[in-house]
Amino acid sequence: MGKKINIRIFDGFEILLDNKPILENLSNTRKTKLFVAYLLVNSDRPITHQELFELLWSGEDYANPATALRTLLYRFRSMIDKEGADGLAGAIISHRGTYQWNRDLDVSIDALDFKALAEAGINPTISAARRKEYLTQAIEMYKGTLLPDFSSEPWLIAKSASYRDMYVEAVMAYIEILKSENQTAKIVQVCERALALAGTSEILELEAQIAKLTIANPDASSRSSVIAYYNEVRDLSVKLHDEADRMQAELQEEVIDQQAFLCDYRTFKELYNLQRRMQSRTKSTIFLGLVHIRIDGSESGDPLYEEKIMTDIVSCCQRMLRVGDAICRKADSEIAILFPADSYEDAVGVLERLKTAVKEREDDEIVIVYRVRPLKSGRD
């Protein structure tokens, strides 16, 4: 019988072989660790080389992203071979420009196990006894923050919030079962642990308060006002939850185009000022790039020909920039770009790469001049 491998991504990142930590050197190479962690959290889909490269080397200049990614994969596989963790062989699948965590692997991942147990426990079609069993395991398995070393990463915030919401939903379902069994003291214990792990939740706070009042004096009339308020808050919470789902579905596009956002100058101006507002309360720096293009080819002077070249150049820039960047045609021969970067040097690097790509793409002699400016914050 093979040794059991468990991966913990709640409240840390640890790989265990028969409950003993392995691959501890993974923590010494941040990019390799982030590479593996990202594939684990997004194991439900293949991840493109481009998405991984933007995650791992945002703002950095690499001639061959695929080679850089293969190096990370090689490091991870070398660690597996060195420690004899045969159960992790084939953990990462490479296929047609994508990487994906192998979900057929006989490996237990605490977050995925929690999700499966919570979904089973919330299911109202199975018996209360079986639901209680699933919910007990799920609630015990949840440990709070998902991958705390990367908690500030934007991609992880939504994932962590999703697990947190599922945990609160599982706790509420468990409390309803405890109520039917008159286990009031247990309700207080469950609520207090949940509040410590999940943070503020008015519903859980009210559940704990009602349970404490019941323990103090089961016949007290003071509970009635608290219960009435609780019922109102619970009903509003359900209503707002459904409304938020409807609003999100209404606002978001069915599929986000995986390239920079191309817009007119008026929209670009609105985005510029929105970014100024956001920059005043975040640590990110947004840059404005202004690019002038002059075409000196054999057919220069022909407006239709020059327009075709400019359209091609805008399309090229749109594909090369990242999905969150914005680009607009400011004038006949000028384009403007909004994009984040870690430093002025990185921002210049972005424009240099665009310049090189455009000049390599077109047969005509093209002169490109650009300037880069960091946005002033909303307070400037």
Keywords:
alpha+beta, Arc Repressor Mutant, subunit A, Alpha-Beta Plaits, 3 domains, 12 helices, globular
Task: Give the SSE layout.
Blueprint: E1 5-8, E2 14-17, E3 20-22, H1 30-41, E4 47-48, H2 49-57, H3 65-83, E5 92-95, E6 98-101, E7 107-109, H4 110-122, H5 128-141, H6 154-180, H7 184-198, H8 202-216, H9 223-251, E8 261-263, H10 265-279, E9 286-295, H11 303-320, E10 326-331, E11 334-340, H12 344-361, E12 366-374
Parallel strand pairs: 1-7, 8-10
Antiparallel strand pairs: 1-2, 2-3, 4-6, 5-6, 9-11, 9-12, 10-11
Helix pairs in contact: 1-3, 2-3, 4-5, 4-6, 5-6, 6-7, 7-8, 8-9
Provide structural commentary.
- The chain has 380 residues and is an alpha+beta fold.
- It folds into 3 domains: 5-109, Orthogonal Bundle (Arc Repressor Mutant, subunit A), CATH 1.10.10; 110-251, no CATH class; 261-374, 2-Layer Sandwich (Alpha-Beta Plaits), CATH 3.30.70.
- The protein is built from 12 helices and 12 strands.
- The strands form 3 sheets. A 5-stranded mixed beta sheet has the order 8-10-11-9-12, sandwiched between helices. It has a 4-stranded mixed beta sheet with strand order 3-2-1-7.
- Helix 4 (110-122) packs across helix 6 (154-180) and helix 7 (184-198) runs antiparallel to helix 8 (202-216).
- The radius of gyration is 27 Å and the shape is globular.
- The termini are far apart.
- The mean pLDDT is 86.
